[in-house]
Amino acid sequence: MGGCTVGVIHVPGGILFFKNRDLQARYLVNRVTAWQSTPEVHAFKGANLKTGELEGVAIGVNRHRICVANTHVVSTPDVTYDLLCERLVLEAREQGHVPRIVRDFMGRHAVQGGRILVSSPEWTFLVEVLGERFEIQEVQGSFVITNSFSLIAHQVDRSPVREQSSASRLRVASGMLGNIANVKQLKGMLRSHLPMKGELSICNHRQDGGGTESSHIIQIRGEYIGWSSLIGFPCENDYCTVGLFR
User: Fold this and answer.
1) C-alpha 125, offset from chain centre
2) What pTM did the predictor assign?
3) Which residues have C-beta within 8 Å of that of residue 226, sequence separation ≥ 6?
4) Which stretch of DSSP H or E encloses residue 168?
5) 90: which DSSP letter?
6) Do residues 231 and 33 make contact, with C-beta atoms less than 8 angstroms apart?
7) What are the pLDDT digits (tens) for 101-134?
8) Which domain holds residue 109?
9) How many whole angstroms separate alpha carbon 93 and alpha carbon 202?
10) Domain containing residue 104: CATH number
11) How many domains does the chain have?
12) Which of 114, 106, 127 is nearest to 46 (CA)?
């Protein structure tokens, strides 16, 4: 299924929260993208890759300065973790709400294997889900995730290049996080072709014609919340920025 590189960077006065969304070519033939924007929430809609229907949230932020985004690990017939992300961004108002929302959702659903990052300027949770199993861990400082579980014990059956890509993108992004202090530098990371342009790089170019189909940066600085985004490869396109919740 997808790849994706997701993370949070702490900068003076706030955070930079980001996602490169990666998909295989067959999911890009009839590309459908949609935004969900209300006075309380701004989000990029997720998609059920089995049905092609828009469903849930791939990355979003709410007025309470809580951001959420996910990465894919295991394809199953269960409901998509995008629906849990939607619940989180719609309902979370403070740190203590996150574990409660996750437990309630997982008590009602079996879920495809995925990883979810939930962040505010003050705290971050990593959530992993697979079937009826889930794990929640609070993490400190700047943090990045790709497509391999770290909390749930599970042997993923997928091609070696998918394993290599997840490990490579995690290694490169983790090495860059400490040197990023602003949006311009983060854009440079999301356009990175280290260690080489192709399936192993953060700006992901797959041999099947797929790869990074959109890129998103949420900047929170004090009361300001801004969203920079592009559709396509980050190395070939410019970001458009909008201010939210004015």
Assistant:
1) 13
2) 0.95
3) 218, 219, 241, 242, 243, 244
4) helix 160-177
5) H
6) yes
7) 999 999 999 999 999 999 999 999 999 999 999 9
8) 5-243
9) 31
10) 3.60.60.10
11) 1
12) 114
